[in-house]
């Protein structure tokens, strides 16, 4: 815990990144309950020292401790999936990480938007807006990761969708509007491409 605080030098985001890495490394090849207890004992105090609510800190750790089953080089979940599909382990593991990459943002939402935990503020329109924008941002991050909307996204459309979804996570109105505009523009262009492809086939 002290190491995370010292290395991050009080930088909130850097402390979360370091905790993220520690959770992934310590969570490899260990049963879920054991990995959560071990990582929580070692890392949770560091986050609490930085004034992160205890429940948000523990959910952050718990989430990443479980996601360590997806990440190479151990990736127990990917190993099981590769065995069932009779596919290459590393290709399966990296594909799993790619498909689940949007989910790696969720623990950060717990910390930066405690309203999602429904216990730190009254349930009001602000809470509802936070929940809706979080769901939308994760959905479009997933779309950017799999590179598909109405049809395959171009590189520019993919970047617009990815950046727009990240801007929604910031949860500030002026920045969120820019995010919505980027996503809407990317999807509008992609829809036009999809319609033109349909006309060519016809």
From TrEMBL:
<dbReference type="InterPro" id="IPR010656">
    <property type="entry name" value="DctM"/>
</dbReference>
<protein>
    <recommendedName>
        <fullName>TRAP C4-dicarboxylate transport system permease DctM subunit domain-containing protein</fullName>
    </recommendedName>
</protein>
<dbReference type="Pfam" id="PF06808">
    <property type="entry name" value="DctM"/>
</dbReference>
<feature type="transmembrane region" description="Helical">
    <location>
        <begin position="61"/>
        <end position="85"/>
    </location>
</feature>
<feature type="domain" description="TRAP C4-dicarboxylate transport system permease DctM subunit">
    <location>
        <begin position="2"/>
        <end position="118"/>
    </location>
</feature>
<feature type="transmembrane region" description="Helical">
    <location>
        <begin position="12"/>
        <end position="30"/>
    </location>
</feature>
<keyword id="KW-0472">Membrane</keyword>
<keyword id="KW-1133">Transmembrane helix</keyword>
<feature type="transmembrane region" description="Helical">
    <location>
        <begin position="162"/>
        <end position="189"/>
    </location>
</feature>
<feature type="transmembrane region" description="Helical">
    <location>
        <begin position="123"/>
        <end position="150"/>
    </location>
</feature>
<keyword id="KW-0812">Transmembrane</keyword>
<feature type="transmembrane region" description="Helical">
    <location>
        <begin position="92"/>
        <end position="111"/>
    </location>
</feature>
């Amino acid at each position: 815990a002290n190491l995370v605080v010292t290395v991050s030098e009080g930088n909130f985001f850097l402390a979360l990144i370091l905790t993220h890495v520690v959770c992934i490394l310590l969570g490899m090849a260990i049963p879920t309950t054991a990995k959560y207890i071990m990582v929580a004992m070692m890392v949770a105090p560091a986050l609490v020292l930085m004034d992160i609510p205890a429940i948000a800190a523990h959910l952050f750790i718990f989430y990443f401790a479980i996601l360590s089953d997806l990440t190479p080089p151990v990736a127990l979940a990917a190993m099981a999936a590769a065995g069932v599909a009779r596919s290459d382990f590393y290709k399966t593991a990296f594909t799993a990480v790619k498909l689940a990459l949007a989910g790696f943002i969720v623990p950060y939402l717990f910390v930066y938007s405690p309203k999602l935990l429904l216990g730190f503020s009254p349930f009001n329109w602000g809470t509802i807006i936070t929940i809706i924008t979080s769901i939308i941002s994760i959905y479009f991050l997933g779309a950017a990761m799999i590179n598909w909307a109405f049809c395959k996204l171009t590189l520019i459309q993919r970047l617009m969708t990815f950046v727009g979804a990240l801007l929604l996570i910031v949860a500030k109105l002026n920045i969120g509007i820019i995010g919505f505009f980027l996503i809407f523009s990317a999807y509008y262009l992609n829809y036009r491409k999809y319609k033109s492809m349909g006309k060519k086939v016809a």
